[in-house]
Amino acid sequence: MTFDLTLSSSDLLLLAPEIFLTIWLCVVLAVDFTFKQIDHENLAYLSVGGIIATLINLIWFDYTEVQGALFKDMFVLDGVAIFFKIFILIATAMVLLASIDYVKSFKFFRGEYYFLVMMSALGMMFMASAQDLLSVFVTLEFSTFGFYVLVAYLREDQKSSEAGLKFFILGVFAAGLLAYGISLVYGETGTLVFSEMASMPGSYGLAIGFIMIFAALGFKIGAVPFHSWIPDTYQGAPTPITAFLSIAPKGAALAILIRMFYVALATFKPTWGLLFVVASILSMTYGNIVAIAQKNIKRLLAYSGIAQIGNVMIGLAAGTKRGSDAMLFYLLTYLFANLGAFAVVIGVSNLIKSDEIEDYNGLNRRSPFLAAAMLLFLLSLAGVPPLAGFIGKLYIFVAAIEQELYTLLIVGLINIVISMYYYLVVVKKMYINEPHDPTPLSVSTPLKTVIFVGIAGTLILGIYPKPFIDWAVAATLMFSNLNAPTASAPAALTSLAGG
Amino acid sequence: MGQLALQATLFAPFLGAIVLLFVPNRRPLLVRAVAVASAGVALLTSLFVFMAYDPDQGGFQFITKWAWSEELGIGFHIGVDGIGAPLVFASAILLFAGIFISWHIKDRTKEFYIFLLILAAATIGVFMSLDLFFLYFFYEMSVLPMYVLLGVWGSHTKGYLSMTDSEGRKLRDSVGFILNFGANSKEYAAMKLTLFLSAGAVFALMGILLIYHFSPVQTFDILVLREVADFDGTLATIIWLLVFFGFASIAPIWPLHSWSPVGHAAAPAATSMLHAGVLMKLGHFSIIRVAYEILPETTQELMPIAAVLCVFSIIYGGFVAYFAKDTKYVIGYSSSSHMGYVFLGMAALDYISLTGAVIYMFAHALATGMLFAMAGWVYDQTHTRDIPSLGGLVKNMPFLAGAFIIACMASVGMPGTVNFIAEIMIIVGSWEKYPFQVVVAVLGIVLTMAYLFKMMRGLFYGNMSPEYAHARDTSQWVDRLPLLVMIGCSIFFGIFPMHFYNVVRSTVVPMLDRINQVSPLISQNTTGLFP
Fold this sequence. Notes:
The complex is a heterodimer. The relative contact order of chain A is 0.09. The C terminus of chain A is likely disordered. Chain A has a two-stranded antiparallel ribbon with strand order 1-2. Chain A is mainly alpha-helical. Chain A starts with 8 loop residues before the first helix and ends with a helix. Chain B starts with a helix and ends in a 16-residue tail after the last helix. Chain B is globular and about 70 Å long. By secondary structure, chain B is mainly alpha-helical. Chains A and B meet through α17, α18, α19 and α21 of A and β1, α5, α6, α7 and α9 of B.
């Protein structure tokens, strides 16, 4: 294998968003070092400006259909990559804005905070383009690196250090699994590129290798049984980082999962379909049931996130083009609802210094805006119309029923009811209970912006999702060949349905 | 014109809710004015739709269809048939009346009206959806506002949910929820109602997804599905059972009724009215819209299930209502008993009885709305719903007592009210097929009379306890208007039912012809009660 690393200017164009962001984050760091007296708030706006410029660049790429592959297919820019990059950047911009008030409480390293968040985002953008096991490993470690620091950012807080340590040890373990899995797969197939693996015969080595890779990525997305780090890390990490962790790495890892299973392992779909069915059922059920017992809002959202990932994996279990469309759309709905909910949590914890659900008592009296926003976000997560979460869930269930995954569907539907309980308990605290301390709460402008973006996303995706559904469908055009008719349908049922 | 009116009926309350978001809470009069304006628009347009519906033409009218997602086969498709039109009208009446009934709510008035408007608008949405997706969309949307309405503005029945264990430690909510089945707190009622209805809804959703998947065209459009879908065998049975029991849980059919009286008792008056008046009819309506339209043959086979269960509904609800000591429990159980009549009328699959069932839904909405409104007034004045401790209120509230008697008469089905027409049609229409059930239903009417008169005696006659001497009658026009509107509608349609009857019948006849594969299966008087 020889690498031809001569790049033409048109090749560089494909890398433009990443190159621009790399330069920009160096600029942010340089500004922070050079102008010691600069208000960190301006650094945040500088970073967000850079991200918005990158976003515009990517949207233009999507619009003009700029696509291609670089470095022997190690880096690819296609619909899926662009979708996930935009996804990650929206999440990053929202997290940066939501961080501004929180960062004020830091004594040191305020500037580095924004640098590290953007560096992780950069790593995840590369993850979305990884089309080769080697680049999977490198980009995954690149993105996690920033998180190791960020999770433990509150140096004086014991919980934060604990969270950082747990995240680091398990993260490194996952990296080891990933490397071992990759070496097994390479040993069996002699290649690292996904598209070249597609024609390889199956073998035990390949199966074990991919299960290990799945475990490492399952760690990133927080699927049961690889979830154990999630609650403690989420609780201990600075809340904006929890918000970031709960959405962006999941998106990036799902981009790799979808590429790996849809492209490299397309022929073994019945086998890995089952893998996702099991992981999905476990994640949904475990996440929802354990969430009921939580007393801390960050832990509640952590477990709810595990359950949501279970829902997302229904799309992967379906293993069709429809499944991938539904998954992409679901992630969008999850992005706005989840980041919105975390923005409210950040707002409340900035003001009352607590994340206990008990302290949300009477929030409606203290701040009708925060309570109403939280109500919308939680109901969207629960999947109540006319909010985004409902359309996402319905879409993903449609994908499941097309593959006749009845068990998965029934478990998913029952889980909607279970999840409604704990979301409604929070609603009860906010609206029904009386506050311990009735002082009104006010929200800062940047945070308000994030919450409004969340509300807008949740409502628009719920009431008029067509453009976003169309975008998801267009982004996954390369999986059209997977749109095969249901092979597993019992003949009797098919004939009953009249075709 | 009709299309616009129908759209206005649906969107006016939503628009009202959105406008209310921007009205400051410290101006309650403006808040109420906005709510009244949007409900008034909905009332007038729905009346127009109901009157303009052309029975000679029949079928679905005033149809609007906008593309929503071709990818999933969903269109925003609304329109009404002879069953939807009166129910849309009933929802609008109850919303309008409910806004006046809750005129004196002081706590977070704005939020209350926002949730109430969303609840009513979603209900109206179900009655005009011609797309399975939007039917479910509005159905589920109508359930959630109930949680907040009950929880925040509702009232406890017997003390608060105990959240401490025997040693005084604080319990988690989940533990309290699971271990306090006897509790009658509003939080418990709200949670039970929401979870119960959501569970029912997901069953129905499973049925809807199966219909979507196994129909030859991948669409949610009911008008397309009823033409192309052809289900039979096990698959049809499974779908039908999912749809029937999923939607019947809101109806509520015995044994899925237990959430309903608890919910009624905890809810504020206006919410009880909408809940008992129209929310429960979503169940019957959705069964008619989905099962009757898309699975006609299976309906014909399996509808006897409803005929069996409705007996339990009627008897059980009636007896519990007789022995209940809480005004709202009496009315709540009476509602779940009366919903048995609708199921009986539906189960007989006869022109007269199904027409009667639809008219009964409308009639019951008005009668129960009145009863709940007045029970709410009595509660606001006396702060108790315990019948034995009340009495003699007629001295203080002569107007209310008079209206209460009319409401009781309507609920019993006295000639002159629309309830009478509905009841007699259900009884006459079902006699041939289900004579036993008809006997039970007639006994149920006697039972209704017994418990309503017992409640009336307990509230208004006998000796008055001095602590309620301050209780006031409805004296302002805002308090009397809603009652008069509901009484007026009940009596007007009781005396002039022809248009109503023709509207319903124009839809019922072709629907039943499809289900019964055109008449020969059941011999019946096709000219109807009103030749």
